[in-house]
Amino acid sequence: MSSAAKTMDAGPLVAAARAVLASGAAVRVRDGREACLIQAIDGLTSERFTLLRDGANGPCRLVLTGERTQHLGIAPRSTGSLAMALPADIGFDAVRGLAEPGFEALAGEVRPGFFAAASEAETAGIELVKRAGLLPAILSTSESGALDAVLELDAALVFAQAESELSSLVRVVETRLPITASESCRIAVFRSPIGTADQVALSIGNLKESLERGEAPLVRLHSECLTGDLFGSLRCDCGLQLQGAIAHMTDEGAGILLYLRQEGRGIGLINKLRAYRLQDQGYDTVDANMHLGFQADERDFRIAARILSLMGVKRIRLLTNNPDKVRIIAQHGIEVVERVPLFFAANCHNRAYLQTKLEKSGHFLRVIDGARGSKGDVASDLARILRGGPGEEIGA
Ligand SMILES: Nc1nc2c(ncn2[C@@H]2O[C@H](COP(=O)(O)OP(=O)(O)OP(=O)(O)O)[C@@H](O)[C@H]2O)c(=O)[nH]1
Ligand SMILES: [Zn+2]
Fold first, then answer.
1. Of the candidates 162, 188, 204, which is a domain's last residue?
2. Considering Cα of 95, then 97, then 100, then 103, what sign does the dihedral take?
3. Do 245 and 211 belong to one domain?
């Protein structure tokens, strides 16, 4: 198949495969050597598990990421996914315990014996369930008499999905959107047939004139955070950063806010909340992600570079404390002429989270206690930002 044909096919097939897996049904994934029936474990029912196990012509394999097997202590450290044959009489609870944090006790003494690198088809299965917002854990069988696949696709299409999403992204609509902070604001929405969500760009103030003058605009790449952006969660700093970025831009007269649909650093809302539960048991934000089977950060910032290119923006001043954002944007055709810090005083609920970003993720932060998390402190911080002044920066 030519790469152009792959790109064309990838949209409908990969998007449909994600939806099938999320709905609890199975897909068949082919690689050069085999075809596997793939079933997500997240959301699997006990009845369906029994059908799959008993109907399989051959061993039923459990596939987990190296992050998850390392945390379970059942396999050596591995960067790729690992597959293991399940004992023929294994029960549903034990499988759930291996796949889902918080349920490990159900696995009891069950320890799958033989680990091998997952096949290409199985690795593609893990990619699909991750992008469907499910836990990265699947069952794979060579064939099943009892269950059939809703659709079949090549592993290569799955591996091409990120590239396909980038190249097929188009601006679908743009319109005026006066907002509280700036009556002179426009919103544009970008869509890809293969994407999991629409991407949003706010152009604030006199952006067109600023670009015509050759200026590098202030840009914020803001990853979606329902809990912080909408509900004002104190567990993170997202809400203040969102409002603070807009305030910086209105203060300067122009700017671009990309609202990237990367909830939970790319693991989705449900998995972020699962990570919060683990953090309440003592894991930090990085370890919680890995315990769930994800990398510390699953975001792909190339999409932001692509949107900026589609908007005709080549040089920017980036509002961030995250070195990865600067590095990846710069590697993908956007010149970052300056990094502008964007942080606020910590509160008692997000202090450890910010400290972990500083120590483990290399963010340019100084974590200074400010608001203690009481309603009054945080509300007045937000009110100051909304008045239009720049967010208070603590430290350089
Ligand atoms: N998995 C996970 N995601 C989290 C957690 N806390 C916040 N998030 C998500 O992290 C993302 C925060 O992203 P940003 O604020 O854009 O990025 P950043 O990496 O902190 O970098 P800057 O804010 O630009 O300095 C959002 O998608 C949140 O939903 C957490 O404990 N676990
Ligand atoms: Zn947040």
1. 162
2. positive
3. yes
pLDDT in tens, 243-272: 999 999 999 999 999 999 999 999 999 999
Residue 258: CB atoms within 10 A of its CB come to: 21
Residue 183 located in a structural domain: yes
Residues paired with residue 222 on neighbouring β-strands, in sequence order: 259
Rounded to whole angstroms, how far apart are CA atoms 32 and 15? 22
Q: Judge whether 377 counts as a catalytic residue.
A: no
Atom of ligand 1 nearest to the CA of 319: 24
pTM attached to this predicted model: 0.89
Of 43-52, 121-130, 321-330, 353-362, the poorest mean pLDDT is in 353-362
Q: What is the pLDDT of residues 315-359, one digit of tens each?
A: 999 999 999 999 999 999 999 999 999 888 888 898 888 888 888
**Ligand 1, atom 15: closest residue by C-alpha:** 238
High-pLDDT (> 70) share of the chain, %? 88
Instruction: Tell whether 100 and 201 lie within a shared domain.
Output: no
Domain assignment present for residue 21? The answer is: yes
Supply the residue whose CA is at minimum distance from atom 19 of ligand 1.
322
In the prediction, which pLDDT does 10 show? 63
Residue 171: DSSP 8-state: E
297: annotated active-site residue: yes
CATH code of the domain covering residue 10: 3.90.870.10
**Burial of 281 per CB tally in 10 Å (0-12, 13-18, 19+):** exposed
How far apart, in Å, do the first and last CA atoms of the chain sit? Answer: 53
Tell me the CA–centroid distance for residue 48 and ligand 1, in Å: 35
Does 189 share its domain with 139?
Answer: no
Token pair, residue 2, equals 């030519």
Confidence class of residue 273 from pLDDT cuts 50, 70 and 90? very high
Structure tokens belonging to residue 396: 């350089």
| Phi/psi-derived region of residue 81, left when phi > 0, alpha when psi is between -120 and 50, beta in every other case | beta
Distance between CA 386 and CA 251 in Å, rounded? 11
CA distance 345 to 343: 7
**Domain containing 232: what range?**
169-262+299-386
Same domain, 31 and 76: yes
> Looking at the 3D structure of the chain, how many domains does it have?
2
Residues 139, 106 share a domain: yes
